[in-house]
Amino acid sequence: MVMILYKIKMEYTDLANYKLISFDKIPSTQNYAHDMIAHGRGADHTAIVAQAQSAGRGRFRRTWVSHHGNLYVSFIFNSPDRNPRLSYAVAVAIAETLVACDIKPQIKWPNDILVDGKKICGVLIEYSGPFVVVGIGINIKTNPTVAEYKTTKMANYTDVEINDVLRVLMKNLDKWMSADFSRVHARWMEMAVGLNKTIKYRGTSAQMIGLNENGALILRRDSEYFLVYGDEVAL
Q1: How far apart are the C-alpha atoms of 100 and 165, rounded to whole Å?
Q2: Which of 57, 73, 131, 180 is found 20 to 30 A from 204 (Cα to Cα)?
Q3: Quick one: which of 92, 74, 70 has its CA closest to 139?
């Protein structure tokens, strides 16, 4: 594997206890984080930020439209083991960041963030060696037009700057990723959309009940309860 070199706009070493590497534009912050890890440069609490991406990606290799004006960041954290509950802590941290900006978010399972039923943020969590890479894209100044769902941006509700959102996000990630899962669970449930409602799972209807202590989604179909890890549900 060949390490791809990019022109770095600026680099911080102490921003809310994170090492921050910032670019004007790169293909993907997520891919850059994986490159760092593959070449022995991965370190806990590293944040790779780009003003724009030419090849941003979301879950299931979907394209993440990444124009200027929004926050695109991939965090590297120590993670010797996979943690199925991590996505909920990340979702709560992002939602609390919006709350701090006087925006009322909801969480769509497992970690999409909605405002007024429209997507404002996406998350991509991938493991690499002893690390986990947490990619987050928050629509701040612009929002893309997507055929599959409606989108929105923070600028529709408040006037904020990217760096201010990033600082609050970093603090919330540290808070909620280190919190006991019972606290994460309770807060996630408070902000979850679709609880006790009928959803679509693998083409059939089921009722969304909540989460169990291991981070699995609990669904009910008639009298049968079953658990879902990592699949998609349609509200």
Answers
A1: 9
A2: 57
A3: 70
